[in-house]
Amino acid sequence: MEEHFQHLYEALSQVDGYIYPNEIDLHWGLMIVLYPYITGLVAGAFILASLERVFHVKVLKPTYGLALLTALAFLLVATMPLVSHLQHPLRAYEIFMTPNSTSAMAIFGFVYLWYLMVVLLLEIWFDYRRDFVIWSKTSKGFKKYFYKIITLGINETDAKSVKLDDRLGYFITVIGIPSAFLLHGYVGFIFGSIKANPWWSTVLMPIIFLFSAMVSGIALVMVIYMIVSWIRRVKIDMKCLDTIARYLLFILIIDFTLESLDQIHRIYEAEESFDIIKVLVSGKLNLTLFIMQIGLGTIMPLFFLGIFQFYKPAEKIRKAVYLFVGIFVLIGIFFMRWNVVIGGQLFSKSLSGFTSFRAVYSGLEGYFMASVWLILPLIILTFLLWLMPPWKKIDELK
Apex CA 170: angle with CA 152 and CA 380, to 5°? Predict the structure, then answer.
């Protein structure tokens, strides 16, 4: 009995003002922060790849294959934070077996399968099919058998079959662009459609989520491209890197503008929830919003990327700045997700009180498991780069 009261006292110590008893503990924690963050990385990486394939930005060719494999690696792990959050996911498969057109979460299951099976896997297969055939004749061991199986018995390498592969791959990429928008835009739709929460309820939420996803995915590919080039000890294509940084700047400006417009609109309307949101932003979200998301993750990257459009220092300096800018952007977008998911649950529905969020280190909702779901895609990507190195593919096509 004393332990029960002790837990109650600890819970009440997190409360400021008046809140309902069922609002003391947050229902969505760190795993629900990671879920839109990882899906955003997938969508952004695919959009960067489509710039080369569909919009013919040929200077981005060195990162095309890398961006596709990065999207695939993170997509394979995208649902794992949800599985951790459910804790007993033995019936999770039913989301794919019982369609429900009125449930945004149920629709996600089909969007996820469509994007994984029809878009990413098919595009990568058409893009690598001829190379699989060639590599199956020159490789040994596991790689040889894998390449033979993955060709699906289609072993033609003539110009006609390669041209057909390219056309089909191009068609799938075109379909994949709106699919990428749908994959991540629906996450913002889920939050934006919750009318009872004034922090989430805005028509701009899906658009903000979408552009922030593009920002994070482009930043991720830029960082990975630099690290992979350093590991392989090959020279970084500075024209490609400068172009990625330019696109990152443009989309970051749009993303920051949309978020600023949303906040200005809230301030101008000054609805009944404005007072508590003002206290929330200046209090519990002060560090994560103003310092981490806006200062470190937005203003600083905008400053350096903007300067580099007018003045280009030595390549060594630009490489170092691009690396840190990419990392800062990734941190900033993570805290953007944090501020939306966690911040929206910190104030009560009565608009007269606050609770606090305390993440744990162990368990399926802790920091350790969050680290696992962030590191696992990088391990998968390392394996994919060993199995399907895009730089060898580029060399063979020349």
Answer: 60
- Residue entry with tokens 């680290």: 371
How far apart CA 184 and CA 186 sit, in angstroms, is 5
Mean pLDDT of 14-40: 78
Which has the higher per-residue pLDDT, 352 or 284? 284
| Bridge partners, residue 37, by sequence | none
3-state SS assignment for residue 309: coil
With contact defined as beta carbons under 8 Å apart, do 38 and 373 qualify? yes
pLDDT for residue 233: 93
Taking residues 200-218, report their average pLDDT. Answer: 89
Mean pLDDT in the chain? 85
CA–CA separation, 365 vs 85, rounded Å?
6
Cβ neighbour number for residue 194 with a 10 Å cutoff: 13
d(CA 282, CA 335): 16
Rounded to an integer, what distance in angstroms lies between the CA atom of residue 120 and that of residue 313?
A: 37
Burial of 377 per CB tally in 10 Å (0-12, 13-18, 19+): buried
Mean pLDDT of 358-380: 88
**Which residue is it, tokens 């379909």?**
175
**pTM: predicted TM-score of the whole model, two decimal places:** 0.91
* Phi/psi-derived region of residue 357, left when phi > 0, alpha when psi is between -120 and 50, beta in every other case: beta
